[in-house]
């Protein structure tokens, strides 16, 4: 089933449902995966109108633990007793004790059902956005109630009741890919034993071994290795062009986006027993983003057409996934008006204020600090998008290695002239500014290799554009920035 796409604009959308007296009982079943923990409530509402058909509804949550950023699976059980029923919407309310807040999410079902029993597989987004805003970040959340709206014989009814159910949102687990490797022996005159992370080579005298395996990198990953027992023997571990330089170290492979070969080459002497221990760890991290939209997609005198913020967030998210195993997920978008002028701090203040109104935030403002703030109700980062020409194309609040959780992307800059951003550069601008949030530095093409962080000195701009070294044409990160960003991104994981 598809979720409704919701846009925040001057407050949250509300769903208006005509509620009539119920003519039949309602059975609410909540499944926790534990038979003894199952609870049900029935026969809570009844009434009479000029209406003879009947319907019952149960809601089941398939699990009580979910990883941050995952869709939450639910089953809507519907029994149509007679007549046809068009089931329109499932609405679920949730509460967070941490944020002291309740919010509602509507899932469009859009099913016409004949008499009979049905189990409709649905999904809840980690973003609840009706009546109030709540993003399911780490922690526990209590489901409060649900309702379904359906039409039967041109009547619209709402089934509802209150139930208790708690779901825990946890971080993605680290995956050690070394446990899943399938080694192929190319050459050997040694005895080989493979057990999980360890490869043991045993020689009766002098012998050679060449072994190979393949892994698929999914985000930033490094191979940690420890070689023991090699006193006179020579053992090398190679990954692509990188070769181990000692018996204990780490080889980064995260910037590769295809299958990666790992090769062990060993020459054993003096009847030595050598053990190669590997660790290939990677963990996914999801960053919840909020978009503050100041007429970003509107046409202006340059007549350039820009996509909505979510389009560019998705583009940049794919690059972060390939390199860092980090993905961005937009959990809300709201529109706001800015005061006149090009001052970036005024723009930021206006966005922070409107965020509080549109998302009903705790402190009546977006709380800007390093990393996610509890006052922002589960959101991690706010990206500001404006059509206006500002003092600079982009900016983050704070300093390198500790930027606040906000970044500005403007379609024009008055810095060193009056420059309007080509629409084809918008994704790279967002990538550049978001990289500052994770601690990456501005660098310069005159003394660094080209990357999305490597800007041009005024005298180098034309040459760098012609030679495709200009920062808004690049999507790669330098390895030094990758290492910084990996370290700083952990602020978005629970302690």
What can you see in these coordinates?
By secondary structure, the chain is mostly beta strands. 12% of the residues lie in helices and 42% in strands. Strands 1, 25, 26, 27, 28, 29 and 30 form a 7-stranded mixed sheet that branches. Strands 14, 16, 17, 19, 22 and 24 form a 6-stranded antiparallel sheet that branches. Strands 5-13-12-7-8 form a 5-stranded mixed sheet, with no helix packed on it. Helix 1 crosses helix 3 (426-437).
Question: Briefly, what is this?
Answer:
Helix content is about 10%, strand content about 40%. The chain is mainly beta.
CA-atom Rg in angstroms:
28 Å
Distance between the termini: 35 Å
Strand content: 35-45%
Structure summary, number of beta strands:
32
Helix-strand layout with pairing:
Layout: E1 8-9, E2 28-30, E3 39-41, E4 55-61, E5 65-67, E6 72-80, E7 85-96, E8 101-113, E9 116-124, E10 127-128, E11 134-135, E12 139-152, E13 155-170, E14 175-176, E15 184-188, E16 191-195, E17 198-202, E18 207-216, E19 222-228, E20 234-239, E21 242-243, E22 248-252, E23 259-268, E24 273-282, E25 285-294, H1 309-324, E26 326-335, H2 344-359, E27 381-390, E28 394-396, E29 406-413, E30 419-420, H3 426-437, E31 443-444, E32 454-455, H4 461-466, H5 479-488
Parallel strand pairs: 1-26, 5-13, 25-26, 25-27, 27-29, 31-32
Antiparallel strand pairs: 2-3, 4-6, 6-9, 7-8, 7-12, 10-11, 12-13, 14-24, 15-18, 16-17, 17-24, 18-23, 19-22, 19-24, 20-21, 20-23, 28-29, 29-30
Helix pairs in contact: 1-3
């Amino acid at each position: 089933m598809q979720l409704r796409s919701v846009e925040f604009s001057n407050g949250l959308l509300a769903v208006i449902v005509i509620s009539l007296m119920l003519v039949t009982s309602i059975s609410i079943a909540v499944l926790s995966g534990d038979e003894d923990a199952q609870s049900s409530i029935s026969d809570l509402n009844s009434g009479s109108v000029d209406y003879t058909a009947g319907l019952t509804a149960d809601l089941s949550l398939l699990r009580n633990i979910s990883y941050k950023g995952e869709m939450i699976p639910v089953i809507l059980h519907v029994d149509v007793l007679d007549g046809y029923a068009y089931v329109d919407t499932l609405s679920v309310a949730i509460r967070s004790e941490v944020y002291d807040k309740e919010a509602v999410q509507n899932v469009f079902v859009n099913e016409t059902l004949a008499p009979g029993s049905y189990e409709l597989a649905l999904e809840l987004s980690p973003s609840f956005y009706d009546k109030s805003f709540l993003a399911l970040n780490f922690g526990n959340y209590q489901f409060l109630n649900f309702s379904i709206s359906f039409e039967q014989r041109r009547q619209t009814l709402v089934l509802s009741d209150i139930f208790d159910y708690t779901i825990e949102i946890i971080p993605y687990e680290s995956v050690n890919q070394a446990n899943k490797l399938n080694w192929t022996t190319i050459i050997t005159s040694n005895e080989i034993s493979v057990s999980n992370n360890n490869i043991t080579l045993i020689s009766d005298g002098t012998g050679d071994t060449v072994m190979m395996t393949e892994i698929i990198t999914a985000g930033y990953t490094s191979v940690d290795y420890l070689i023991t027992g090699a006193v006179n023997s020579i053992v090398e571990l190679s990954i692509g062009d990188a070769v181990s330089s000692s018996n204990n170290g780490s080889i980064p492979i995260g910037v590769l986006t295809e299958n990666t070969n790992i090769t062990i080459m060993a020459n054993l002497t003096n009847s030595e027993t050598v053990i190669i221990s590997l660790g290939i760890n990677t963990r996914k991290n999801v960053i919840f983003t909020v978009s503050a939209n100041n007429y970003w997609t509107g046409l202006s005198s340059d007549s350039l057409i820009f996509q909505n913020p979510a389009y560019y967030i998705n583009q940049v998210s794919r690059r972060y996934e390939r390199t860092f195993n980090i993905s961005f997920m937009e959990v809300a978008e709201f529109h706001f008006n800015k005061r006149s002028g090009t001052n970036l701090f005024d723009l930021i203040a206006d966005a922070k204020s409107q965020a509080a109104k549109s998302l009903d935030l705790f402190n009546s403002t977006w709380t800007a600090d390093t990393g996610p703030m509890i006052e922002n109700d589960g959101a991690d980062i706010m990206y500001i998008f404006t059509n206006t020409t500002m003092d600079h194309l982009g900016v983050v609040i704070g300093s390198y290695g500790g930027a606040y959780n906000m970044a500005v992307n403007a379609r024009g800059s008055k810095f060193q002239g009056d420059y309007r951003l080509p629409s084809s550069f918008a994704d790279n601008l967002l990538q550049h500014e978001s990289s500052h949030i994770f601690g990456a530095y501005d660098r310069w093409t005159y003394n660094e290799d080209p990357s999305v962080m490597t800007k041009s000195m005024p005298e180098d701009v034309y040459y760098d554009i012609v030679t495709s070294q200009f920062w808004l044409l690049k999507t790669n990160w330098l390895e030094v920035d990758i290492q910084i960003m990996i370290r700083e991104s952990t602020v978005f994981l629970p302690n």
